[in-house]
Inverse folding.
């Protein structure tokens, strides 16, 4: 999600050449250009994909789930409502693919951004320092955006904090051989699976209400019970870890079940993105690259589904189970492949301009969507009338309201684009 390959001059990276001295770089060197080589060209499909996901996120579901509740007998509205909101635990809706897309695109972008930095003559220690700096800033930004009470809310579930927690580890895999990156991802997922499986299940007299699990919650059974809501290893970790920080009251549970340790398996998602980015930056032909993306997507979908069907590990996005990591990676690879086919292979780029405007200022859009959404909505009603969103009737007011706010935020990104202002970390 962070804008990692942005050119603050607004021009294509391919049009620039590096004039830095050709001092040898330390650190891993596999698949990296020599210092002084031309900078890698921008991957337009990545900017468009990022912009698409940012617009979807900033739309807050376009109010579709609220409207769907008014049409309980409509299969169309119920399907739309399902896919524009998160599933409660098991399964996958379109809305659940937003965060995996963020994490995945960070890896894709890293394959380009640090190669460009190296081509400009930056040393490995300097790039490592930048990765650490970016990690810290992203973690702190997530804490800032999640804090709205009387004191700082030390929580690490926000997507930018999750990216920050894993970013430096991802950098250490940049430029390594592909088998090393793949082995690292598999070891992460295997270790995370073992952590959950080894954690003891709650006893028959366990008080589920104490950890925010309602009496009508459909508990997972058998081996899958190790991945049940707020009784798993990651939830137990947070009951210790988050209480190390000053809080208004002791932390007992997170209402939806999101844990801090999600950053570990989501690091595997970022590694898959890094591998995809290095593939796309590499020398293979475009059609070969597309074929590999599609095959990788099919493998991820099949592996994730198999782990779920055979009872080894359920697909749960909220705690980022290994099966979810593989399954969601399959979907995001397919989405990237679609953008790559249309934009970078077929050359159909003009339609993607509204997405590029946002994709090149993703940090700005993310912060605005988290901080200004309600403020913009209220100001529109102040200046244009309290009933402005009822133009198509009260039933569809949520959709009109969210579209109006999204358009205002897009206009801000458009203005930044025209001024060649690209906010990045």
């Amino acid at each position: 999600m962070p804008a990692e390959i942005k050119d603050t001059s607004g021009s294509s990276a391919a049009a620039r050449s590096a004039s830095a001295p050709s001092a040898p770089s330390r650190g891993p060197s596999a698949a990296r250009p020599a210092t002084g080589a031309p900078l890698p060209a921008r991957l337009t499909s990545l900017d468009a994909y990022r912009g698409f996901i940012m617009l979807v996120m900033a739309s807050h579901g376009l109010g579709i789930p609220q409207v769907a509740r008014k049409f309980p007998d409509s299969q169309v509205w119920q399907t739309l409502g399902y896919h524009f909101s998160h599933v409660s635990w098991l399964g996958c809706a379109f809305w659940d693919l937003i965060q995996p897309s963020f994490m995945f695109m960070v890896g894709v972008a890293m394959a380009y951004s640090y190669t460009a930095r190296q081509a400009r003559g930056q040393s490995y220690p300097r790039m490592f320092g930048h990765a650490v700096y970016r990690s810290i800033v992203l973690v702190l930004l997530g804490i800032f955006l999640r804090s709205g009470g009387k004191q700082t809310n030390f929580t690490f579930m926000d997507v930018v904090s999750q990216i920050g927690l894993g970013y430096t580890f991802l950098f250490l895999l940049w430029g390594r051989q592909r088998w090393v990156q793949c082995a690292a991802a598999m070891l992460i997922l295997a270790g995370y699976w073992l952590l959950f499986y080894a954690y003891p299940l709650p006893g028959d007299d366990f008080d589920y209400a104490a950890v925010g699990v309602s009496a009508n919650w459909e508990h997972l059974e058998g081996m899958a019970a190790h991945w049940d809501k707020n009784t798993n290893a990651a939830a137990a970790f947070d009951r210790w870890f988050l209480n190390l920080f000053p809080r208004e009251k002791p932390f007992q549970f997170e209402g939806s079940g999101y844990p801090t340790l999600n950053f570990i398996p989501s690091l595997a998602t970022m590694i898959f993105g890094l591998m995809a980015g290095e593939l796309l930056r590499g020398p293979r032909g475009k059609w070969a690259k597309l074929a590999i993306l599609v095959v990788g997507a099919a493998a991820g979908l099949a592996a994730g589904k198999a782990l779920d069907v055979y009872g080894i590990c359920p697909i749960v996005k909220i705690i980022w189970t290994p099966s979810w990591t593989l399954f969601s990676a399959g979907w995001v690879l397919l989405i990237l492949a679609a953008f790559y086919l249309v934009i970078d292979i077929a050359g159909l780029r003009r339609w993607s301009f509204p997405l590029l405007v946002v994709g090149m200022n993703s940090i700005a859009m993310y912060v605005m969507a988290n901080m200004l959404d309600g403020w913009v909505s209220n100001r529109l009603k102040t200046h244009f009338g309290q009933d402005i969103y009822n133009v198509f009737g009260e039933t569809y007011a949520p959709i009109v309201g969210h579209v109006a706010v999204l358009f205002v935020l897009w206009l801000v990104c458009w203005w930044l684009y025209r001024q060649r202002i690209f906010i990045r970390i």
Summary: The first helix runs from residue 44 to 58.
